[in-house]
TrEMBL record:
Molecular function GO labels: acetyl-CoA carboxylase activity; propionyl-CoA carboxylase activity
Protein name: Acetyl-CoA carboxylase biotin carboxyl carrier protein subunit
Record region (Disordered): 1-20, 41-68
Species: Saccharomonospora piscinae
InterPro entries: ACC_epsilon (IPR032716)
């Protein structure tokens, strides 16, 4: 891809070949991959973040210490 297309449209080209002579199929495959990555990045940015499990929640480490007594060992492993 050369600068000819950018001269006609007034925008920068999506891809520029620095070395070598790729054929049309190679350029099409590369453009497809780049467009797919851009699409995936845009959709990932708009999705809501996944819910965090209570087991991995950092707030569970901030709870009060367990009290000694019957069954205290069992409740010490559960998230707050």
């Amino acid at each position: 891809m050369t600068g000819e297309a950018s001269d006609r449209t007034g925008t920068a080209p999506l891809l520029r070949v620095e070395r070598g002579a790729p054929d049309d199929e190679e350029l099409a495959a590369l453009a497809t991959v780049v467009a797919g990555l851009a699409s995936a990045a845009n959709s990932a940015a708009t999705e809501s973040p996944a819910r965090r499990s209570r087991w991995s929640d950092p707030a569970s480490r901030l709870r009060l210490p367990s009290r000694p007594g019957r069954g205290a060992w069992r409740w010490s492993a559960y998230p707050a």
